[in-house]
Design brief:
single chain, alpha+beta, Aminopeptidase, HIT family, subunit A, 2 domains, 8 helices, 30% helix, 26% strand, elongated, binds zinc ion
Amino acid sequence: MKIQFETERLIIRPLVPDDAEAAFRWCGDPKVNTYMIYPLYHRAEDVRTWLEGRNPDDPDNYDEGIVLKSTGELIGSGGMAYHPDRNAWEIGYNIRADQWGNGYVVEYLRALLEQIRKVRPVEAIDGIFAEENYKSRRVMEKLGMAWVRDTSFDKLDGSQTFRAKYFRRNLEQPAGQCGVCDRIEKTRKGNNPYFVRETETGYVVLGDHQRFEGYTLLLCKEHATELNQLTPAFRDAFLRDMAVTAEAVQNVFHPDKLNYELLGAGKGRHMHWHIFPRRQGDTEKPGPVWLEKDMNDDRYLPSTEKLEEMKKALGSELDRLLPRNK
Ligand SMILES: [Zn+2]
């Protein structure tokens, strides 16, 4: 997609066929190409053919030219491509080898993300890079991305397979996009009457309707849909926080059994644990709580006094249990 803007040191502008000579300085450089998916270019004419064949208006692909303000030279290209399966932008770039190490990619991609999130508020930025490519790792870390899992990729011509790393940053959603992000924002500002306690990875809140007394939620601090979108360390801590929250609910509300459910596809796709205390005979037939049509009936909204009492009891039990489970 054509986009044009300036950063402190760079001018970002669409690539045109006449950029072929300048682009050949990185497209034809084996050093730059080492970990790239595309084969090395051997002639500037082939770069021109590539540039002529691109669709510069593709809304799913921002692949722009990076120009140095100080000299006016085109020193690289890159940007972000949209992946609908992950609702994420995946980053990619090439920079002329003599311009490495100056932080240009990070400066560009930070600004690009800001620009294009206004157009499409995606949920994450992703990046895949060859394991040995420590420079790309630095770029992704500076963009706030972190390792989620190992993977691999092949060069397009099949000549090489690289062991690779998959990095990701889940993005907090702008106001109005995600019900859970909105509620977390409200909680942070001290405007959520159901808020009980913050944990390392989430926020413990009581359910609005207490049809099942002690109904509690743990809202994940990261805007993510699935556990596999979290770094393993955060994922494990999130699961631990859920288990401890459930234990506190059990100790305070004394159910016969707890139900645990990780949902997250309402307004926004944001994981949150539902913890339901269940009691013998609490539904007409044994079954999931969601079958109860009256679950969100206003008569199950707790009074202010009751809510305060429940929050206090659950909060102090969490204060007791959480430090023991680090
Ligand atoms: Zn969210």
